[in-house]
Amino acid sequence: MDTGLGSGNYGNITEMLSDKHPNTIEIEVTFFENCDVVCSFCGHEKESTEGMSSKEMFAKLKSIEKFLDTANKNVAFANVHLLGGELLQDRLMTGDKDCYLELYYSWLEDYKKICEDRGFNPRCVIVTNNLTTKVEMVKDFLDTVRDELMPCDLIVSYDMSGRPITRQYRHNLGYFKDYISNINMVATSASMKKIMRNDDAFFKQLYCDFEIYIDDFLPDPESEHLIPSDELLLEFMHFCRKEFPKIMPYSWSVEVMEKELCEMVEISGSTLNKTTILPDGRVTNYAWDRHKPEMFNRPFILEDNTNMLYDFVMENDCLSCEHFDYCHMRCPVLWSWKNRERSEGCVNKRFYDAINNEEV
User: Fold this and answer.
1) What is the pLDDT of residues 119-145, one digit of tens each?
2) Mind giving me the DSSP string for 10-33?
3) What is the dihedral of CA 209, 42, 80, 130, to 10 degrees?
4) 302 and 6 in contact (C-beta within 8 Å)?
5) Can you give the pTM of this predicted structure?
6) 234 close to 351: Cβ distance less than 8 angstroms
7) Beta bridge mates, 212
8) I need a labelling partner for 191 at 20 to 30 A (CA). Which of 115, 162, 239, 306 fits?
9) Is residue 119 packed enough to be buried (19+ CB in 10 Å), middle (13-18) or exposed (0-12)?
């Protein structure tokens, strides 16, 4: 077995972390970058039409077939995450003949067949900025997919410092409450600081009403100033534990640790059980084609980041760490970003060590 660069299993890292594999497959499909909102942290080309034709959308299913042909079948679901841009923007739902919801439904019909032919249970998650005014159309679409095809939920993105939070956004949270699996917040330094200053009262309301997931921020060169330093990340993790203890992914790791549960926490933000399909149909493992080797402090291959995951595990002595079982680990691609502020030692280990010291 080739376990070198580009092999998809650098240094046999897949076997090393076999007990921490996610229990689901994640297929991230970005149909297109076209979007109706400009967010400060996002590098998408808002007016791009690449990937928006039905031909381009359905061509991506071939890559999914290829991925699932060799994927681990010992999982609960094959989750497809459908993203833009913004898939639910109003201008894509103007009438029966040019409504993209019909395209998405037909695409999911084919996805269901691909999964079931290979022994996988399909599931769909649509990531949205939650600003659509076509709420009844979207609700009918979600109900039809749920009734006729597969479980289907929304992930609603939130960023109080880089995106407008409008009256429509607030209305849609209530309207789609039973369809929202979680609120996803990109972990930029600006957002972290605002939360820790208690400058965002709406965030507290979201925390009470929904599960919130803090997602690692992988920047573009123009937004790398928004990468949190290791010290800020550590401070934020401690703050969340005290003020917002249910926030994922930290909450489950801390609960397993403090209650001494016999659970192996799955790795988050990694390459395992995952593939990414870009608007032009290119298949990667997480990064985009605008990410270049010079942006990282170790070899970078667009299609395979297992060398970064391997280096993270080796340099932080993860396999011998006393916190290994419940540690959620970190995104190895962001960890390998060259121009970010680093600290000595593993942030996660320092976090869990501090919790242990509190209990002494």
Assistant:
1) 999 999 999 999 999 999 999 999 999
2) GGGHHHHTGGG--SEEEEEEE---
3) 40
4) no
5) 0.92
6) yes
7) 183
8) 306
9) exposed
Kindly state the tokens that stand for 207.
């925390």
Token output for 125:
């998650």
Establish how many alpha carbons lie within 13 A of residue 133's alpha carbon, considering only the half-sphere containing its beta carbon: 6
Contact 347, 269 (CB under 8 A): no
Distance CA 87, CA 107 (A): 13
Q: What is the DSSP letter of 320?
A: G
Q: Which residues contact 147 (CB under 8 A, 6 or more apart)?
A: none
- Is residue 120 helix, strand or coil? coil
Q: What is the DSSP string of 256-274?
A: HHHTT-S--PPP-SSSTTE
> Which residue did the predictor score with more confidence, 220 or 341?
341
What is d(CA 261, CA 266) in angstroms, rounded to the nearest whole number?
14
Residue type, 314: M
* Radius of gyration of the chain from its Cα atoms, rounded to whole angstroms: 20
